[in-house]
Amino acid sequence: KGKAKGQKGKKITLKAAKNSIRITFDGRRRLDLSKMGITTFPKCILKLADVDELDLSRNMLKKIPDSIQKFQKLRWLDLHSNQLEELPEAIGMLQNLAYLNVSNNKLTTKNLPVDLNLLKNLRTLNLGLNRLDNIPTTLGALKELKEVSLFDNFLTAIPTSVTKLPKLKKLNVKRNPFPGPTQQEEHVDSIKRTETLYLVQEKDLCCSCLKMCQDERDKLNKLTNTIPSSSKKLNFPSLLTPNSTAKDNQEQWR
């Protein structure tokens, strides 16, 4: 009987918001409203627009208003794990933003604002766990980007303008329906190697490990010099390459 009531979230008061301000280890003011059960962007926090960081992650937000542009000092914005289907064009006005996390939402390619390309100081962009089937080539304008996460979407290609960003160090495109493994490797090969290959300096090894590695290297050099190249490929089951690979245990969307 009657209409079903919509889900009501927690109401955030200005006092509660002020009490949620934290000072980060580097002295920045972070407004932390994560995991508060918020369904609607709390207008009262516009009075705290001088904070450096804003965390609204792990809530139930469906929309971010254009008034977000009032946070002109904002360097760090975390909106991951909400129910966002779009981002406002006004997000491009946050010229000081260096970190933007909107992973684990319901964003589609057509609802990514063109004005994202105005975030000239952006260094980290996380768009993983969304519904993107394409990446705008305009993101290639973000020359300061160092980390881009696009995992768990519906991408079949990554624009060269993104893969060739001059400062890009990490590009995560895992679990996307690329046409074939070779094409995926083509997009991330050079970047992926830097994440999985770790070179160890001699000074970082204990004496026994260092000697073991040197001995194995000497054995390999001798075999390489004495056996013709036309011989069948050799197998060195005991060959030790210290710390040559490492598991990728970083958090996916933090």
Outline the structure in words.
With about 250 residues, the chain is an alpha/beta fold. The protein has a domain at about 20-170: Ribonuclease Inhibitor (Leucine-rich repeat, LRR (right-handed beta-alpha superhelix)). Helix content is about 20%, strand content about 10%. Helix 2 links the parallel strand 7 and strand 8. The two termini are about 45 Å apart.
Compact summary:
This is Leucine-rich repeat-containing protein 18. With 254 residues, this protein is an alpha/beta fold. The chain has helices at 14-18, 160-163, 181-196, 207-226; strands at residues 21-23, 29-32, 53-55, 76-78, 99-101, 124-126, 147-149, 170-172.
- Which CATH-level-2 architecture of the domain at 22-172? Alpha-Beta Horseshoe
Task: Give the N-to-C terminal Cα separation.
Answer: 43 Å
Average predicted confidence as pLDDT = 82
Q: DSSP strand (E) fraction? A: 5-15%
Give helix and strand order, one letter per element, not per position: HEEEEEEEHEHH
The radius of gyration over CA amounts to 24 Å
Can you list the strand order of the major beta sheet? Answer: 1-2-3-4-5-6-7-8
Q: Could you state the CATH homologous superfamily of the domain at 22-172? A: Ribonuclease Inhibitor
Shape verdict: globular
Q: Give helix % range.
A: 10-25%
Q: Spans with pLDDT under 50 lasting ≥5 residues?
A: 192-198, 229-234, 238-250
Largest sheet: 8 strands, mixed
Class by SSE composition: alpha/beta
Q: How many individual helices?
A: 4
How many strands appear in the DSSP assignment?
8
Protein name: Leucine-rich repeat-containing protein 18
Main location: cytoplasm
GO cellular component, one term: cytoplasm
Region (Disordered): 234-254
